[in-house]
């Protein structure tokens, strides 16, 4: 089976349609006002509703009120939430109990203490491992994937952080325990929030031969 693909940071209706036509497994909408890929107000609930049902819609949040997250889930028909802040296992469990898939993101630097993940086991559906940087996400740099070589927790994860076309060969052959999906973002943009559909198509062709 080929690797699952998520394209994150959709913010424009035409661009959303072009990328949805490539049939990613997940599309991400960033509901973090400080992000250069903030989905609102350019992307409306009607735009999201037009996304084919086979593509899971993921809302990305950073330390947002759960009431606001719930509102976005309803408005945009989100199937999953991706949490990039200091959200606790309790917050994750609360959201998960409403039926939404919960992806808890963690930023990885030169080293990573995997023990911090333990309280989240059983409270989230997936982890997302991203690169630590100036922003809570979308930093455009890769971390050392070998830090995940001995991953043994029963929570599958998305691999994120500066994934680019030049990584296609490595990613296609990547044998990391627990790897569930790849997350593509700033390395496939013409400007923040606008994906280069042609570049994404090349990546998809290489990862889904
Ligand atoms: O992309 C953002 O602007 C962003 C801002 C705040 C929180 C999360 C954000 N992105 C979430 C993602 O899933 C990105 O795809 C992930 O951080 C990797 O991005 P990149 O390093 O640009 O490939």
Helical element count?
Answer: 6
Secondary-structure class: alpha/beta
CATH class: Alpha Beta
Report Rg.
16 Å
Q: Note poorly predicted spans.
A: none
DSSP E strands, number:
10
The biggest sheet amounts to:
8 strands, parallel, barrel
Q: Estimate the mean pLDDT confidence.
A: 97
Overall 3D geometry? Answer: globular
Distance between the termini: 11 Å
Fraction in helix: 10-25%
Total separate domains = 1
Q: What is the fold-level CATH name, i.e. the topology?
A: TIM Barrel
Major sheet: order of its strands?
1-2-3-4-5-6-7-8
Describe, in plain words, how this protein is organized in 3D:
- The chain has 209 residues and is α/β, with parallel strands linked by helices.
- It has a single domain, classed as TIM Barrel.
- It has six helices and ten strands.
- The strands form two sheets. Strands 1-2-3-4-5-6-7-8 form an eight-stranded parallel barrel. Strands 9-10 form a two-stranded antiparallel ribbon.
- Helix 3 links the parallel strand 3 and strand 4.
- The longest helix is centred in the middle third of the chain and has 11 residues.
- The site of ligand LARABZUK has 27 residues, from strand 2 and strand 6.
- Its EC number is 5.3.1.24.
- It holds the Pfam family PRAI.
- InterPro entries: Aldolase_TIM, PRAI_dom, RibuloseP-bd_barrel, TrpF_fam.
- Belongs to the TrpF family.
- Keywords: Amino-acid biosynthesis, Aromatic amino acid biosynthesis, Isomerase, Tryptophan biosynthesis.
């Amino acid at each position: 089976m080929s690797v699952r693909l998520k394209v994150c940071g959709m913010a424009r209706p035409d661009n959303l349609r072009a990328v949805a036509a490539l049939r990613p497994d997940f599309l991400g909408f960033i509901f973090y006002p400080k992000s250069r890929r903030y989905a609102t107000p350019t992307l409306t609930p009607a735009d999201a509703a037009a996304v084919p049902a086979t593509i899971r819609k993921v809302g990305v949040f950073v330390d947002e009120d759960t009431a606001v997250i719930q509102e976005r889930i309803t408005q945009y028909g989100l199937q999953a939430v991706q949490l990039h802040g200091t959200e606790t296992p309790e917050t994750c469990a609360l959201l998960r109990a409403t039926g939404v898939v919960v992806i808890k993101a963690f930023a990885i630097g030169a080293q990573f203490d995997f023990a911090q993940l333990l309280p989240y086991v059983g409270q989230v559906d997936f982890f997302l491992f991203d690169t630590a940087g100036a922003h809570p996400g979308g930093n455009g740099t890769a971390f050392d994937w070998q830090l995940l070589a001995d991953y043994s927790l029963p929570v599958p994860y998305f691999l994120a952080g500066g994934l680019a076309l030049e990584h296609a060969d490595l990613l296609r052959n990547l044998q990391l325990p627990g790897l569930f999906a790849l997350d593509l973002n700033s390395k496939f943009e013409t400007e923040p929030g606008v994906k280069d559909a042609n570049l994404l198509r090349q990546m998809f062709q290489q990862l889904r031969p």
